[in-house]
Amino acid sequence: MAAEGHKLAIFRGLLKFKSNQQKIWGVLIFLSIVTTVEVALGIIKPEILLGTFLRMKLLNWIFIILTIVKAYYIAWDFMHIRDETNGLKNSIVLPLVILIPYLAFILLLEADYIFDVMEAGFVAWNF
Amino acid sequence: MEVTSNASLEESQVWGGGNKPLKASYGKMMMWFFIVSDALTFTGFLVSYGFSRFKNINSWPIADEVFTHFPFLHGIDAPMYYVALMTFILIFSSVTMVLAVDAGHHMNKAKVTFYMLLTIIGGAIFVGSQAWEWKNFIKGEYGALETRGGQILQFVNAESGKRAAIQDFSIGIESERTTHQASNGIWYQDETPLPNVSVAEVKKGFLADPNLVIRTEKLTENGQKTVLSREDSLIKIEEAIGVVEGANLIHNEYGNRLFADFFFFITGFHGFHVFSGVVINIIIFFNVILGTYERRGHYEMVEKVGLYWHFVDLVWVFVFTFFYLV
Questions:
Q1: Which of A34, A74, A84, A115 to mutate to test the interface with B (most CBs of B within 10 A)?
Q2: Using CB atoms, which residue from A38, A92, A112 is nearest to B325?
Q3: Would you write out chain B's pLDDT as a tens digit for each of its 326 residues?
Q4: Is residue B179 a part of any domain in this protein?
Q5: Chain-chain contact of A1 with B298 (C-beta, under 8 angstroms)
C-alpha cells in the first residue's frame, strides 16, 4: 500500500512510466483508443469481418477479445492487481477465469441445440 | 504494516489478529472476494442473455436499430454514440477514482477530496444517462403489431425504405371501446391502458396506403430484418392481434420480448450498482472532508470503495459489448 510499491511498466515492460499518476493517464489513453476502435468498427461494420468463425461473426470475436483486453487493464492497473501478491492475484482471477468460460460454454452450446430443434420444426413456433 | 516471517511468530501472534495474510488488509481482501462473487452473479445474467440470444439467433433485435437516440438531436439516427459517450464517462470517473486513491497514498487531503468529487459527478451523469436510455426504450418510437405467436410486425415504407410509425398512418375508426377502469363496472377488474390506436385502425391505414409493407423479426443471411412484399404483407397483417407501443416486461415493439426483459434486468442491476456506488462514494467523500482518514493515518477506505467503483466500470465494459456491440 505504500506508493513506492507500484509496478510502473505496462505491455510487458514495453512502456514504462515515471510515476503512478502518469501510468493512470497512460492506461486511460489506451482504454479510450480501444473503445474508439470498438465503436468505429460497430458503426462501419467492414465487409471482411462479417464472415463467421465457430458460428459467430469475426467482428463479434474482435469485440469480445477487445473487451477482455480492456477488462485486463482495468483490473491490473486501476484495481492494482499488478501490485498484489501472487496468492491474492490467483485466488481472485483463477475462479473467474475457470468458471466464466465454462458456464458460457455449456449454456451457449445448449442454446444452439435448442435453436436447431426449433428450426427443425418439432416445436410449433409461430401459431 | 510489518510483516515478519511466520517461523518467528508466536502462535498467539498468528491467530491473535494483526497478521496480514497475502499482504492485504482484511477489509480489502473481503472487498475483493465480494467482487469475485458479484462478478459471478453478473456472469450468470449475461450468460443467460447469451442463452436466449443463441436460442433465437435468427430473430434477435438489432441493437443499432433500437438505441438510436442522442440528446438534443431529434430525429437523427445516431446508433451507439450515446452509449459510447456513457462508456467514456464511466471510464473517466474510474480514472479520477484511481487518482483519488493515489492522492490518498500521499496523504494529500485536498486532492483526494477533489478527485472524489469528480468521481461522484461522473457516476451521477452516468446514472442519469441510463435513466434517459430507459425512458426512450420504454416510450418506443414507431410502434408495431403483435401476432398470436408473440411475434412483432413492424412497418416500412417500401418507397423510401424508412420505418413507418403506426401512429402516423393508422386511420381513426369511431369506437366506444375505452380503457376499463376499476371505478366503472365490475369493481375488482381493470385493465392496462389501451394503446393510442387499435389493431383495426392500423389495419385500415395499412390497406389504404399501398406503399406500406411489413418487416418481420426474422433475420436474412446478411443479418438484416426480412421485409415482406406487399402481397405477403396483406396476408401477414391478418395474424395481428394487438398493438405494441414501446417496451415493458410483457411486450416489446423492437422484437423478442426477452430482449426487453434482459435489458431492464441487466442494465437495471448494473445501474443499481452504480447508484449504490455513488452513495458510498458520497459517504466516503464526507468522511474525507471531516478528516476521518487523516486522523486514522491512512486512506485505505478510499482504496476499498475504489475497488468497488472500478468493478462497476468493469461490468459496464462487458454490458456495453454484449448489449450494444455484438
A1: A74
A2: A38
A3: 455 555 555 665 666 666 777 888 888 999 999 999 999 999 999 999 999 999 998 889 998 888 888 888 777 778 888 999 999 999 999 999 999 999 999 999 999 999 999 999 999 999 999 999 999 999 998 999 999 888 899 999 988 888 899 988 988 887 777 788 888 777 788 887 788 888 999 999 999 999 999 999 888 887 889 999 999 999 999 999 999 999 999 999 999 999 999 999 999 999 999 999 999 999 999 999 999 999 999 999 999 999 999 999 999 999 999 999 88
A4: no
A5: yes
Tell me which residue in B22, B54, B149 faces A85 most closely, judged by beta carbons: B22
> Residue A1 and residue B1: Cβ atoms within 8 Å?
yes
Phi-psi region of B17 (alpha: psi -120 to 50; beta: other; left: phi over 0): left
Looking at the complex, does the CB of residue A33 fall below 8 Å from at least one CB of chain B? no
CB spacing of B325 vs A118 below 8 angstroms: no
ipTM, 2 dp: 0.90
Q: Which three cell numbers stand for residue B209?
A: 396506403
Q: Spell out the domain ranges in chain A.
A: 1-83, 86-127
* CATH for B60: 1.20.120.80
Instruction: Give which of A83, A84, A63, A74 is closest to B312, Cα–Cα.
Output: A74
CA trace torsion B293, B298, B302, B307 (10° rounding): -160
Strand segments (E) across chain A: 9-10, 15-16, 52-53, 56-57
